[in-house]
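chain below, 237 aa
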Amino acid sequence: MASWQEDLLDVFDETQSEREVFHRIEAAARSLGFEYCAYGLRVPLPLSNPQTIFLNNYPAQWQQRYVQQGYVQTDPTVQHGCRKNTPLLWADDVFAQAQDFWEDARSFGLRFGWANACIDGGGVRGMLTLARSEGALTAQEVDHNEMKMRWLSHVAHVVLSRIFTKRQAEQMQPHLTAREIEVLKWTADGKTSADISFLLDVSENTVNFHVKNAVVKLQTNNKTAATVRAAMLGLLG
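prediction:
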């Protein structure tokens, strides 16, 4: 029988739904001694109000409670994940400024946990949390399993961010032409329309024509925003 590491690596070679991927992450979490796991992803667009996506197997009542209380705004683990890429071991001092949240979480069986955030080159940030209701994580257990846990968090992020960002790009359906992409690439490198016209051996009006088309297709207001959005959606790679 394949190990959970081999099982997860197979995901790279297959087209998977996020639910199927998360099911495999759940199995890996159980192998590591955790009954609960959660993955949160913050996609980079729109930049002014990034969308956050959550997948977890927490008790249904806790999921509802978390949303109703707006805990995503005060959850210290989320705040840590937004700022740092280092592992976080749950402890009383971590939740010292969010006692109500901490007591609430423990009442639903979320007493011991570990989390690790990752960020990729496209600016997509994600965090994997592993938790359980019984048995504190000892220093020996963390020392023995942390490399596996960190490996799991990175694989989860690579696969799930790929699924969600690809879906976001498809939903926007910009359908940029090869020339529009080329013009935006040079724009991203700081070139002016005059520079690009010289590089591509076309008129400056032609360059501006392609820029305007890209701006419309990407649903932005100017070429700077269009370039940023195209880059975030992976269209300039």
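The chain has two domains: 4-171, 174-232. The first helix runs from residue 4 to 9.
thats it, cya
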